[in-house]
Amino acid sequence: MKKITQFLALIFSFTLLFNSCNRTDEPVDDLPQEEISNAILSVTDETTGTTATYNYQVNGSNTPDIKLINGREYTVQIALKNGAEDVTQEVIDAKDEHFFTFDFPNSDITLTRLDNASSTRADGNKVGLLTKWNVTTAVKSATGAQIRLALYHESISLSENSQLSGNGKVYGTQSGGETDLLAPFKISNP
Fold first, then answer.
1. Closest CA relative to residue 63, chosen from 168, 119, 146
2. What is the pLDDT of residues 144-179, one digit of tens each?
3. What is the pTM (predicted TM-score) of this model?
4. Contact 87/81 with Cβ under 8 angstroms?
5. CA pair distance 57, 63, nearest whole angstrom
C-alpha cells in the first residue's frame, strides 16, 4: 500500500510540474516586432513600368534610398519578412489588428491606399500594404529620414486621414497599441 501511495504521489507531482509550465493560457502576439526583420518596398514607376525594390533591414546600418521623380506616380507594394520567411500574410490574416502610417515630412507626395478586401479592416480602414504615391515634389534632405513607414498593432483608434508633418504630410493617424515596425527611407530625386 505504501508503494502505491508513493507512486500516486509521484504521478501527482509530475502532473503539477507539467501543468504549471503550460503556456497555453498566455496570449500570443500574431506578429511581434522582433519577428519582423525586413520591410521591402516594391516601387513601380507608372510612367516607365519599371519596378525597383528597396529593402529596409531592422537594426541594419543602411537606410534605403528610394528614387522618386517629381511629377510621377508610383505604385508601392509592401512585403514583410522574418529572415527568409514572408510574414506579410500574417498581417493580412490579422488585418483588424494592423495599420500602416506613411510620413513624408519634407515632400509634397499624395498617398492613396489601394488595398483590396483582403487587407481592408472591418472598420473600413485599409491596412496600407498597397498604395499609390503621386509625387509633386520629392525633397532629399541631408539629415534624417525623408520617408518614415510605421506598422502599428492593436491601435485604440486610427484613421486614414492625413495631417501636416513638417513641410509635408503623414498619411494615417493612430493612438495606443504597439509599434511592430519603424522603417526609415531616404529619397533620391535626380
1. 146
2. 679 999 999 999 999 999 998 878 899 999 999 999
3. 0.81
4. yes
5. 8
